[in-house]
Amino acid sequence: MEPSTYHIPVLRDESVRQLITNPDGIYIDATFGGGGHSAWILECLGSDGHLFGVDRDLDARAHCTIEDERFTFVRSDFRYIGHFMEYFGIREVDGILADLGVSSHHLDEAERGFSFRFDAPIDMRMNQAGGDTAADLIRTSTPEELTHILKDYGEVRGARRIATLMKQAADAGTLHTIQDLLDAIAPANPPHDKKGLAKIFQALRIAVNDEMGALQDLLCVGEKLLKPGGHFAVITYHSLEDRPVKNFFRTGNTEGTRHTDHFGVPISSFEPLYTKPTLPTGEEIEANPRSRSAKLRTGVRCEK
């Protein structure tokens, strides 16, 4: 399967342009997915360049069609790339790219349980080899915990009632499939409210995969791995992701707290390549509607 049929890479040309500073350097595609970004990075690298493609999804490895001696696939959560780079004897890299969006493959494969468009087990795991499913999360969480998940990760209206309905269905043993979930929460979020459902599914997916914790770890690992002048390009799709990335590239921490030295000079391990994020063009949005909410931010590693 070609990368373009598995997942259309968002902001492909611009993200790779902002990423590569040295065509013969070492780079990491932290979210390999369908390989679209990786394939283009390799097109832009020189003969001595090398790319590590990282993904925890078994499907990503199964569909990887790249055969290039300059490429190494690493099946892992990107939060652990520091360990793998140490294993490969890599102390510094020239650039890291992360596309934080859910791939088209995840949304279009019914059995993965990421979309409310299909009936399937309530899974939502990026890594199907282990960990709790979304159904497990609902079953083991309290209504209060579920309420916080829905509020914090999806800004879901009526979060408390929806959480209660989920728990009631789970406790009654009637929550097994996506349709079961839709039926359970219908009194609070009817099926025709697609935006509401999207927020609910987003919140559950983020919690199941610990996406915010993984992002925090990725940013910290990137700070240690990138050589001075190296570029860290991150594509985000909602404010929960974009805010910590923006803060990190501006202040060196996800909280956005500015630290200064004794002379009042700001101390930060990064500086943004551009003041504002790069957005997809109208042509790209028309060709790939899922790119509509994408924002590309790139941080430049300051002198260590």
Order of helices and strands: HHEHEHEHEHHHHHHHEHEEEHE
Distance between the termini: 42 Å
Total helical segments: 14
Globular, elongated, flat, extended or rod-shaped: what is the shape?
globular
Structural class: alpha/beta
Fold and architecture overview:
This protein has 304 residues and is α/β, with parallel strands linked by helices. It has helices spanning 3-6, 12-19, 36-44, 58-62, 81-87, 104-108, 134-140, 143-154, 159-171, 178-185, 194-208, 211-225, 239-251, 282-287; strands at residues 26-29, 50-55, 71-75, 93-99, 226-236, 259-260, 266-267, 270-272, 295-301. It has a 7-stranded mixed beta sheet, with helices on both faces. It has a two-stranded antiparallel ribbon with strand order 6-7. α3 (36-44) links the parallel β1 (26-29) and β2 (50-55). It is globular.
Features:
304 residues; alpha/beta; 7-stranded mixed beta sheet; two-stranded antiparallel ribbon; 14 helices; globular
What's the short story on this structure?
The chain has 304 residues and is of the alpha/beta class.
Secondary-structure map with pairings?
Elements: H1 3-6, H2 12-19, E1 26-29, H3 36-44, E2 50-55, H4 58-62, E3 71-75, H5 81-87, E4 93-99, H6 104-108, H7 134-140, H8 143-154, H9 159-171, H10 178-185, H11 194-208, H12 211-225, E5 226-236, H13 239-251, E6 259-260, E7 266-267, E8 270-272, H14 282-287, E9 295-301
Parallel strand pairs: 1-2, 1-4, 2-3, 4-5
Antiparallel strand pairs: 5-9, 6-7, 8-9
Helix pairs in contact: 2-3, 8-9, 8-11, 9-10, 12-13
